[in-house]
Amino acid sequence: MRQPAPSAFDPLRFFELRYASHGTRLGIGYRTHGPDWAELELPYRADMIGDPASGVLASGPILALMDMATAVSVWLRAGAFVPQATLDLRIDYLRPATPGRAVVGRGECYRLTRSIAFVRGQAHDGDPDDPIAHVAGTFMATERYR
Fold first, then answer.
1. For residue range 4-45, what is the model confidence (pLDDT) as tens digits?
2. Rounded to whole angstroms, how far apart are CA atoms 122 and 134?
3. Is 79 left (phi over 0), alpha (psi -120 to 50) or beta?
4. Rounded CA gap, 46 and 49, in Å?
5. Prediction pTM value
6. How far is 140 from 109, CA to CA, in rounded Å?
7. How far apart are CA 42 and CA 100, in angstroms?
8. How far is CA 51 from CA 10, 57, 58, 100, in A?
9. What is the Cα–Cα distance from 146 to 132, expressed in whole angstroms?
């Protein structure tokens, strides 16, 4: 299995810039990363509740979290910020997020070609062994990854 090269892309700096974006509006923030994976966090907020009776977060912000976590994992593996588009991101919801808890999204880029990145990940609200959702998908570079 080919190991990713050390990355020149710095996700911490990327999130410190806090430019106007969908992720910024949702409050998605950086947690940690490795050479081909990233963990981000979506805070629990009342304006993102999908079901007021239960207090459960809507599914849209969780999908946005996972799209961003997997995108960052691609940039880490590629070693640079490369413009890309999400081609496909399948999400399987396993259970509702626990009201009041932040959601952690971990994305991994497990294969990278010149133009396509393959990703997977999971979201949880405190226990990675009890995930909220799993994702799998592909991104396409508008410039070459390598």
1. 555 689 999 998 887 778 888 999 999 999 999 999 999 999
2. 4
3. left
4. 5
5. 0.93
6. 13
7. 11
8. 36, 7, 7, 13
9. 33
